[in-house]
Every structure is written in structure tokens, then in C-alpha cells.
Specification:
Strand content of chain B: under 5%
Largest interface: A-B, 44 and 35 residues
Structural class of chain A: mainly alpha
Largest sheet of chain B: 2 strands, antiparallel
Number of helices of chain B: 15
Mean pLDDT of chain A: 92
Shape of chain B: globular
Oligomer: heterodimer
Order of helices and strands of chain A: HHHHEEHHHHHHHHHH
Mean pLDDT of chain B: 90
Distance between the termini of chain A: 41 Å
Structural class of chain B: mainly alpha
């Protein structure tokens, strides 16, 4: 109640001030149209693309190592994460001033680095992975994965961990937050637009889709891939990208209330993609409960996606619920049971209103 | 969260509309004829800026001689003397922090002297494998006073400080800070003070413009780097108490207070004619009271809130963050006056943006 009074006060303040400048024509706000794709002037999210490329090359290093059972090096991963010498300590195929580490949710940097240490420490294992034993797991079809003694696949923890702590956090928790959104929206920098437009585009860049999304989906990466995978059931491609386009269009004409509505929609739609993806992985785990190789893999993905829900400042789920769901899964993926996984899945589907389609993901 | 940002946005846009709608009507020098900005600048330089640098310089000199004393006869008691004079110098740095103008800006003084939190991994790697150049990018956050803080306070036993290359690292960092400060100090005493005074416009690049910008920038550093980040306000509520200033000596609280006093002193020009008097001359009001008084009152309230915290900012954040949150709110309230009301009354533009890169 008090807050709404404040808002009214702010409005009347604006009115009073406006009327005191009566020799000025009042600025007319034009309406705007939301384009079907991200077709705006002065869009540049190359910094985000470079970071996506960093993660991609990190994961190539990790996956190639696992595929060939070659020991991995934590320092190498750290250099790539920090983009040492602007080329990931010599590991990147391209040079860039950007880095993943300085955009990572700061309190969780040590957690990510701990994944690097843990994957190094188990990657020279000569034993086959099993409950209590870290090692490689290989199927007849040639799929090789590396699990720790609890069945956690650290390569997934690294990849999805960074998708959460950098991409999702930066987009929903930083670029769309008050501080970045209070930026200047008048001074246009060629190629980048205003500071506010640029921040908005940077948030979009972390989604990992191109300018022609959702018409063009085959170049989607990271979150873009998951958005596209959930599209059949959620209509997420249009829902999420429309919110981004609508917000950018509103910024272009200075309609900041519309922009704020779009911020909420981006956050909600993005979170729904994450939630539906978690349900998908939990379903996979339930369906493959007796297959260590598959179950541990999908649970690893699902587990880190659940942790990642945390980073959205306007999230639907609460921190307590996140902890409850993680506790249902537990920290030994060899010892999970169908009932607990179903309970974890059902809690999520209820929170997000996806009960009626929870089995379809 | 969202509601708050909506509120900020509305307030913000109300102000934006207000300022953009009226700029054309505002004379360049509103009733400035009866007020000599040049005198204000001259007094600010003489009463605040040069004394701040002088006293930091003197304390660095003391630190240096206490260090020499320790080096020639290492003992626990000489170590304690050295520690104390370091803390004194760290305190007297604080009022220099907001003066990142002219020579200090050219030297990136604040950045060289007090970038924190310290990258201890980098410091330790320097200590074990050596360092060529403290100015290289990898040492950006491994140098200056935070490095000295680490070397002197990581252990209470003076023996550790004498080991490896710690003495040399201390010396190199103290030299770096001293050299930088000397350049800035000499420039102010050899002509820049006058240059500062006669650059008396209100446009971008004028002394008043620079001072208002840097005063704000430094105040926002207090709010963000010294309070909000350790509190976890930038990290979805996850506190990071280890990011406080002066983590090892645990002197964060006192430094914060000295910094606040320093910013306020720059605003009032000590006993002289300052921005506060200029605002009064312009008839700047905040509600029914003078804007200058409103600003000073909030400075005092920020100081009082900071003073009421326990001796260790870090433990306070860990154990009783609500009081630090109250300090943050008060800092936030003052930002509005300093960054919006004051510049618009002065006809000065805030030109800095947070540029943490993309």
C-alpha cells in the first residue's frame, strides 16, 4: 500500500515537472510492433557468443579426453574458464578479451573450479565406474562416460553448471536487473545501440540463439537447444523469444513499463524451459532406473539444472523447494529409487503447473 | 524484487523526463554570478585535497621508515609498530579515494593503491615464483595496500613476514604506492591546484563536473564494493564476507567510516566554501529543507549506522547482517541525492557508467 502511494507520488512528480516546462511539446510516445525475429538495429552480442564458444571448446577438451580416456587437467580447464592470455592458456582456437570466470556468479566460482579438480582426480581411473568407485563407463555401442564414486558425471556438472552460473545468471540475474536496465537509453553507439539496448541484447545473447530464431532453430546452442527441445510441448521458442523481442521493441520507443513486463516474461519463460528440461531428465532416469550408464548421465544433467534454477531473481520456485527436490534425488545416483525420483518430478511439475503434461517431456 | 525495480524505474524515468524536459530552459550558470565557483574550487583544493594527499604522504613516509626499522632489526615489537603505521596509512588513504581527478586520474591512483578483494592466489604465485612487473594485468588485483594488508596480517607471528620474498614484495608494493602518490602530490603542489581552480565551468571536464562525478563514483564504490557485494546484495543474497576491504587486518569498518568522512569533506570543502555552499547559493531545496543540509544529514546518518556496527564488518555480515543492510539502505538513500538531485541543481552531468565490459 505504501509502495503504491510512492508510485503515485512519483507519477505526480513527473506530471508537475512536465507541466512546469510548458513551452516544451510533450513527448509523444509512439506504439511499436514486435517483429517476428530479432530484427533490430545495432544489435551486438559478440561477447556472449565468444563465451558460448569458450564453453564449447572447454567441453570439446573434456569430451575428447573422456572419449579417449586421457587424463584431464584442472589447470587447463581453469585457464580456459579464465581465458588466460586471451586464448585460454593456448587452448582456444580464437583470441578474445572475454572470459567466463568474471561473469560467473561469484560465490559459485569455487564450486565450478572444484568440478575441474574432481574431474582431474578421477580421469586417470583404470577401473570401471560402479557404486563407490569412480571410473569410466562404456557401452557396447561405444558411448564412454566418466562418473565419480557417486555416479555424478562431472563433465555435465561443468557444462550445465556454467550454463546456470554464467549464462542464465547473467541474462536473468544481471542484464535484466535494475542496475543494467537503468542504463542510458538515448545516446546511440553505432553498432551497439544505447546502453540499455545493448544490455538487453547481451541478455538475449546468453540464450544461445541467432537473430532469426525462432524461424531458424538449427544454429541454437546451449539454452537455445533446450528451449527448442521443449518447444513441442511448451511453445517455448515463440514464448521466450517473443518476450525478448517485445522488450527490445519497447526499449526502442522508451516504453519502460512494457519492457519491465517483458523482463518478467523472459524470466518466467526461461525458467519454464529449465523446469520442463528437469522433468524430462527425471522421466529419463525413471525409465532407465536400472541402467547405471544412462541413469547417472541424465540425473547428472537434471541435478545441475535444478541447482541452476536458483539464479533467476524472479524465480517461481523457492530456494527451499530447490533444496527439497535435490534432497529427494540425493547425492548418490546409484542409490536413487523410482519413488523418490517421481516425487521430485511431481513436486516440480506441480510448482510449474505442468502436471497434465509431466509424463510427456 | 521486481516490484522494487519497477518502482526504481518509475522514479528514475520521472526524473529523466523532468531533466530532459527542462534542460533547454536551464541557464548555463544559474544565478552563479553571485557565487564564485573558482573560489570554491580553490578552497576545496587547499582545505581538502592537498591536505588529504599530504597526510597520506606523511603516513606512507612513516610506514616506510618503520618498515626500514623492521628490516634492520626484525622483532615482534617492530612488527607491531609496522602494522600500526600501515593501518594509519590505510586510513589516511580513504579521503584521497574520491579525488580521482586530474593527476590522480592520469595515474589511475585509486586502482593502483586500493583494488580489492585481493587475488591471493596471484600474490602467492608471485611470492613463490617472482614477479616482473606489478603493473601487468595479472597483478591488477594483487598489489597496493590490499597486498600489504595480506602480508602483514595473514599471520600474527612476525617470522612468516620475513620468509620467502615477502619483504621484497612488501617493499615493491610500498614503493609503487609511494611513487604514484608522489607524482599526484607534486602535480597538485606545482600548478595543478590553480589549473583546477580556473577550470571553473560546469560542463563535462570542468573541475566541478569531475569532482561531482568522482565523488559519486567513489561513494558508489563504498556502497557496492565495501557493503553490497560482501553482503551478497549483488549475488542473489549469497553473502561474500571474504570480499570486504582489508580482509586480513579486519579494519574494514574504520576504513569505511574514514572513506565516508572523506567524501563528505570533499562535498563541504572542510571549513571552506564547498559544493554545499554553492547549492545553498543556488537555492537548492530538498522538500522544505536545503538540499545541502539533507545531504549532510544523510552523510551523518550513514556514518552513525557504520559506527554502530560491531568492530569487524566481516563478522557482522556473517552473524548479524541486518544492521549492515540498514547501512546499505542509508547509503542507497544518499546516492539518490548525490547522483540525481545534486548534479541537476549544479547543472553538471554524471558521465560515468558502470563499464564492467560485456
Amino acid at each position: 500500500m505504501r509502495s503504491s502511494n510512492l508510485i503515485l507520488f512519483a507519477f505526480s512528480l513527473a506530471l508537475i515537472t512536465l507541466s512546469s516546462c510548458n513551452d516544451e511539446e510533450p513527448t509523444t510516445t509512439s506504439s511499436y510492433t514486435v517483429p517476428a525475429i530479432y530484427a533490430f538495429q545495432n544489435v551486438d552480442y559478440s561477447g556472449q557468443t565468444q563465451r558460448l564458444n569458450h564453453l564449447e571448446e572447454m567441453m570439446t577438451y573434456v569430451e575428447d579426453g573422456i572419449e579417449s580416456k586421457t587424463p584431464l587437467n584442472a589447470q587447463t580447464l581453469k585457464y580456459m574458464f579464465e581465458n588466460k592470455d586471451q586464448n585460454g592458456g593456448g587452448m582456444f582456437s580464437f583470441s578474445s578479451s572475454k572470459m567466463l570466470s568474471d561473469k560467473c556468479f561469484a560465490p559459485h566460482i569455487s564450486k565450478i573450479e572444484d568440478y575441474f579438480n574432481r574431474i582431474e582426480s578421477i580421469s586417470d581411473s583404470q577401473t570401471i565406474a560402479s557404486n563407490g568407485v569412480a571410473g569410466y563407463s562404456e557401452t557396447v555401442s561405444g558411448s564412454v562416460r566418466l562418473y565419480d564414486e557417486n555416479g555424478m558425471e562431472l563433465s555435465e556438472f561443468i557444462e550445465k553448471g556454467i550454463m546456470g552460473a554464467v549464462f542464465y545468471y547473467q541474462a536473468t540475474g544481471v542484464y535484466l536487473e535494475t542496475e543494467k536496465m537503468n542504463a542510458d537509453n538515448e545516446n546511440v553507439i553505432e553498432g551497439e545501440g544505447t546502453a540499455m539496448q545493448h544490455h538487453w541484447d547481451e541478455a538475449y545473447g546468453y540464450l544461445g540463439v541467432g537473430l532469426r530464431f525462432p524461424q531458424k532453430v538449427d544454429d541454437a546452442r546451449y539454452w537455445g537447444v533446450y528451449c527448442n527441445r521443449r518447444n513441442d510441448l511448451l511453445g517455448s521458442n515463440e514464448a521466450l523469444s517473443e518476450a525478448f523481442r517485445r522488450g527490445r521493441a519497447a526499449i526502442n520507443v522508451g516504453l519502460l513499463e512494457d519492457r519491465d513486463a517483458a523482463i518478467s516474461d523472459v524470466r518466467t519463460q526461461w525458467e519454464l524451459v529449465a523446469a520442463a528440461t528437469i522433468i524430462h531428465y527425471l522421466n529419463e532416469a525413471i525409465d532407465n532406473i536400472g541402467d547405471d550408464h544412462i541413469r547417472n548421465h541424465v540425473l547428472s544433467e537434471g541435478y545441475v539444472f535444478i541447482e541452476g534454477l536458483f539464479y533467476n531473481p524472479e524465480k517461481i520456485i523457492s530456494n527451499t523447494e530447490i533444496d527439497e527436490i535435490l534432497a529427494k534425488i540425493g547425492t548418490n545416483f546409484y542409490e536413487v529409487n523410482t519413488q523418490d525420483l517421481q516425487s521430485a518430478r511431481d513436486q516440480i511439475s506441480t510448482i510449474y503447473g505442468l502436471d497434465n503434461i509431466k509424463s510427456a517431456f | 524484487m521486481m516490484f522494487r525495480s519497477a518502482l526504481f524505474f518509475i522514479l528514475g524515468s520521472a526524473m529523466l523526463v523532468a531533466s530532459s524536459g527542462c534542460t533547454d530552459n536551464t541557464p548555463d550558470q544559474p544565478s552563479g554570478s553571485t557565487f564564485e565557483r573558482e573560489d570554491m574550487l580553490r578552497e576545496t583544493a587547499q582545505n581538502v585535497i592537498i591536505p588529504a594527499y599530504s597526510s597520506f604522504k606523511a603516513d606512507l613516509g612513516q610506514l616506510s621508515s618503520d618498515f626500514a626499522q623492521f628490516e634492520s632489526s626484525p622483532s615482534q615489537s617492530n612488527f607491531e609498530v609496522l602494522r600500526n603505521s600501515f593501518l594509519q596509512a590505510y586510513q589516511s588513504w580513504q579521503p584521497c579515494s574520491p579525488i580521482e581527478i586530474g593527476p590522480a586520474a592520469e595515474q589511475s591512483l585509486r586502482f593502483s593503491v586500493n583494488t580489492f578483494p585481493l587475488d591471493t592466489a596471484q600474490v602467492n604465485s608471485n611470492l613463490s615464483t617472482g614477479w616482473d612487473n606489478l603493473y601487468s594485468a595479472q597483478n591488477n588485483d594483487a598489489k597496493g595496500l590490499p597486498a600489504l594488508d595480506y602480508l602483514l596480517f595473514i599471520s600474527d607471528d612476525f617470522n612468516l613476514f620475513t620468509q620467502d620474498s615477502r619483504i621484497q614484495y612488501f617493499k615493491d608494493n610500498l614503493d609503487l604506492v609511494t611513487e604514484k602518490l608522489d607524482i599526484v602530490y607534486n602535480a597538485w603542489n606545482n600548478g595543478y591546484a590553480e589549473e583546477f581552480a580556473v577550470n571553473s565551468g560546469t560542463d563535462v571536464g570542468s573541475s566541478l563536473g569531475l569532482m561531482v562525478n568522482e565523488l559519486n563514483f567513489d561513494f558508489e564504490l563504498i556502497k557496492n564494493a565495501k557493503v553490497a557485494i560482501p553482503l551478497g546484495l549483488k549475488t542473489l543474497g549469497v553473502a561474500q564476507p571474504e570480499t570486504v576491504e582489508a580482509l586480513y587486518s579486519d579494519a574494514s569498518k574504520d576504513l569505511l567510516i574514514q572513506n565516508l568522512k572523506g567524501v563528505k569533506n570533499l562535498f563541504v570543502a572542510g571549513e571552506g566554501t564547498g559544493i554545499d555552499d554553492y547549492l545553498d547559493n543556488l537555492g537548492a531545496k530538498y522538500g522544505s529543507e536545503n538540499l545541502s543540509n539533507a545531504i549532510i544529514a544523510r552523510f551523518e546518518s550513514c556514518e552513525a549506522k557504520a559506527a554502530s556496527l560491531g568492530p569487524s564488518l566481516k563478522s557482522q555480515i556473517e552473524n548479524k547482517p541486518s544492521e549492515v543492510e540498514a547501512l546499505h539502505s542509508e547509503l542507497q538513500n544518499l546516492v539518490v541525492l548525490l547522483k540525481t538531485d545534486m548534479p541537476s541543481q549544479l547543472g553538471v552531468q554524471i558521465t560515468y557508467q558502470d563499464n564492467d565490459g560485456d
